[in-house]
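Possible regression after last week's pipeline update?

I re-ran a chain I had predicted before the update to compare outputs. Posting the input and the new output here so someone can diff against the archived version. Not blocking, just want to make sure nothing changed silently.
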Amino acid sequence: MINIEELKFDDRGLIPAIVQDVHSKRVLTLAYMNRESLAITLKEKKTCFWSRSRQELWRKGETSGNYQHVVSIIADCDRDALTVLVEKDGPACHLGTDSCFEFPVVGEVDVPADRFDLETLYEMLQDRKEKMPEGSYTSYLFEKGIDKILKKIGEESTEVVIAGKAEDRDETVYEIADLAYHVMVLMVQMGISVEDIRSELESRHIIDHKVKQEKMTK
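New output (post-update):
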């Protein structure tokens, strides 16, 4: 970990920030930060830049909702450039594309294969709830309501226990996937986001870390 005071801002008080998707590793955009926008980014854990064209602070996602949640910020060897790894809520580019870098000069754009994650599943379930396509099992669960969803969660929890007790790894993976799916159906039904769960787990990690520190000092 380096001290922020070691960073080298240019004569305009700016430092380039290369924003990168933490999952796909794709470069999303190149922006600039000054000391104030960097301080805001560190405090809010969301990217904030300095707009050179408007000459003002620019919180990414403030108007579009496409926030970029900061995972880490890494300086280069000269301390005069940053890589900002983020989890994004939507397109990075104002044109609506995933990345600002979509226009080949030499070769082709290397677009990583779509990555399936919890956010992707959550969005799919939300779409099912909104459109309720006929013949969809997910639509059926939402149509039946929370009692049916909770009943399925209870059943799938039991299946996980049985598979785990049998020490059948493949079957346990299969049943955990079923359980995770139904839990996320419940989350969508109740308006609980993936970020809500992430924040709760993060708070527990922070508390656990503090307890360990306190024990070490005794």
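Follow-up from reviewer: compared with the archived run. The mean pLDDT is 88. Marking as no regression found.
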